[in-house]
Structure to design on (436 residues):
C-alpha cells in the first residue's frame, strides 16, 4: 500500500466524525514535531474540526495520563512508534504520523509511519511530511502546508543530500503550485553585514571568526565588511566564497556547500530560517511560540525571532569555548562535557563537522551532568552510517547496561543514564561501536 492510500483511510476515520468534534493531537517537542502538529491542527480546523494539541517528549511514559482520553480520535505526530502496544490499548482510534523506528504493532488504529510504506524514515519523509500526507488526504488544497512539512524535514536534517523520496515529491508539487520557490543562496545570512553574517554563522561554523576574526579575514580579501553578501559584485562574491571554502578546508570540514538551493515559502519565507526558529522554540521550551508562529498568530514571529537569536548566540558561545578545548577520545568515539543540556546535540554535530580537533571519522558524544541524571547526545555522519554506524542501537544497548535508556536514529541518538555511570556508559558504547 502507498502512504497516500493509507492516509486516505485515516482521513475517512476523521471525516466520519460529526463536524465540530474535537480531535486530540499529540506531537513531538522538536522542529519536525511542531511543524507536524501545526499541519495537523490547521488541516483539522479547515475541515471543520476542533483540536486539542499537546507537545511531549519521546518517553516510555508517553501515554501516561491518557488512559481516560475522551476524544475519539488521537493523532500522534513524530512520536509514538516506540509505544505502539500502549497506543493500541488506549481508548479511541490512534492515527500515527511518524517516521521513527517502530516497536511492536499498532493493531487498533491507522499506521502512517512512513517506514511501513517503503520510505526511508531518516531521509525520505519525516513526521511533518507524514502529517502532510494526512492533511492532503483530507483536502488537497492543504498543499500550501508543504511549507511547514519541508521546514520539518529540514529540522530533522533530511535535506542533507537534497530532498528525496516523499519529501521531494511534496516539494516538487508545492513548487509547481507556487507555494514554494527555490533560490540559490549562501549558507550564511546574505542580507546582513558580512562581518556579522560570518561571525554569526553556525552552519557552516567558521573557526577563528570571533572577536575581530571575521573582520580581519574580510580585510585581507579587501572586501568591505559592512556590506552584505547581496551588496557585493559578482567578482567579490566569488572571491569571498572561494576564500571561505578554503577556510573550511583548513578546518577539515571540506564537504560544505557554501551556496545552496534554498526553498522559500510564499507565507513563511526561507524555510531554513523557519526550521531554525521552530528548533529554537522547541529547544528553549517554548513550543507554544513555535505552534503560534505556524498557525499565523500575530506577535509570534517577533517572539520566535528573539528565541532564535538567543539560542544561536548560546550555540556560538559553546562552540567558541569548544574551539579552544581538546576533546577526549576513546578508540571509536570522541566525547566532551557541556553545561547546557539543551545544546549538547547540536554542539556534538557541529564540533564533529567544523572543529579540526574533532575526528570526522568518529561519532561525537556530548554529555551533560545535571546531578541526578546524565543526558547524552551522539551524532555521526552519513558516511559513518553507510559504514555500519548505528548510534540508536549503540545508545540503547550501552544505556541499558548502566541502568539508563537510549535510542533515536542511526545518525543522531541520545540516552539518559544515572549519575556517576558516565565512564561505564562511554566504555560500553565504545565497545558496541567498535563492533559496528
Ligand atoms: O537529544 P538528542 O537531540 O540528542 O536526541 C537525538 C535522538 O535520540 C532523538 O530522536 C531522541 O528522540 C532520541 N533519544 C532517545 N532516548 C533518549 C534520548 C534521546 O531515544 N533517552
Ligand atoms: Zn521527526
Amino acid at each position: 500500500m502507498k502512504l497516500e492510500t493509507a492516509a486516505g483511510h485515516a482521513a475517512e476515520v476523521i471525516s466520519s466524525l460529526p463536524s465540530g468534534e474535537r480531535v486530540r493531537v499529540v506531537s513531538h517537542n522538536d522542529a519536525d514535531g511542531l511543524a507536524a502538529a501545526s499541519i495537523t491542527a490547521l488541516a483539522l480546523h479547515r475541515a471543520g474540526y476542533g483540536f486539542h494539541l499537546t507537545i511531549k517528549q519521546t518517553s516510555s511514559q508517553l501515554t501516561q495520563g491518557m488512559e481516560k482520553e475522551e476524544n475519539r480520535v488521537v493523532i500522534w505526530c513524530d512520536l509514538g512508534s516506540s509505544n505502539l502496544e500502549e497506543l493500541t490499548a488506549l481508548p479511541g482510534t490512534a492515527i500515527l504520523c511518524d517516521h521513527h523506528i517502530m516497536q511492536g504493532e499498532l493493531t487498533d488504529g491507522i499506521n502512517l509511519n512512513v517506514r511501513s510504506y517503503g520510505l526511508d524514515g531518516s531521509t525520505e519523509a519525516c513526521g511533518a511530511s507524514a502529517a502532510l500526507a494526512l492533511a492532503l488526504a483530507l483536502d488537497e488544497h492543504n498543499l500550501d502546508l508543504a511549507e511547514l512539512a519541508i521546514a520539518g524535514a529540514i529540522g530533522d536534517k533530511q535535506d542533507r543530500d537534497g530532498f528525496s523520496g516523499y519529501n521531494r515529491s511534496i516539494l516538487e508539487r508545492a513548487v509547481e503550485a507556487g507555494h514554494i520557490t527555490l533560490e540559490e543562496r549562501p549558507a550564511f545570512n546574505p542580507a546582513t553585514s558580512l562581518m556579522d553574517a560570518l561571525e554569526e554563522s553556525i552552519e557552516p561554523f567558521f573557526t577563528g571568526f570571533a572577536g575581530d576574526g571575521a573582520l580581519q579575514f574580510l580585510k585581507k580579501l579587501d572586501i568591505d565588511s559592512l556590506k552584505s553578501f547581496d551588496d557585493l559584485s559578482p567578482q567579490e562574491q566569488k572571491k569571498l566564497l572561494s576564500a571561505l571554502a578554503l577556510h573550511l578546508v583548513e578546518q577539515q570540514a571540506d564537504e560544505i556547500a557554501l551556496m545552496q538551493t534554498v526553498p522559500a515559502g510564499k507565507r513563511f519565507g526561507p524555510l531554513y530560517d523557519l526550521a531554525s526558529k521552530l528548533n529554537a522554540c522547541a529547544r528553549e521550551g517554548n513550543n507554544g511560540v513555535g505552534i503560534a508562529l505556524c498557525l499565523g498568530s500575530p506577535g509570534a514571529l517577533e517572539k520566535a525571532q528573539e528565541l532564535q537569536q538567543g539560542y544561536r548566540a548560546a550555540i556560538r558561545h559553546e562552540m567558541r569555548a569548544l574551539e579552544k578545548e581538546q576533546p577526549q577520545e576513546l578508540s571509536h568515539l570522541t566525547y566532551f562535557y557541556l553545561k547546557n543540556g539543551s545544546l549538547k546535540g547540536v554542539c556534538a554535530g557541529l564540533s564533529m563537522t567544523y572543529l579540526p580537533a574533532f575526528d570526522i571519522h568518529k561519532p561525537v558524544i556530548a554529555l551533560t551532568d545535571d546531578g541526578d541524571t546524565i543526558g547524552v547526545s551522539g551524532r555521526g555522519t552519513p558516511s559513518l552510517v553507510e559504514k555500519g554506524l548505528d548510534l540508536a542501537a549503540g545508545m540503547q544497548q550501552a544505556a541499558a547496561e548502566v541502568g539508563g535508556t537510549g535510542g533515536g536514529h542511526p545518525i543522531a541518538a541520545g540516552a539518559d543514564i544515572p549519575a556517576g555511570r558516565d565512564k561505564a556508559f562511554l566504555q560500553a558504547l565504545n565497545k558496541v561501536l567498535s563492533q559496528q
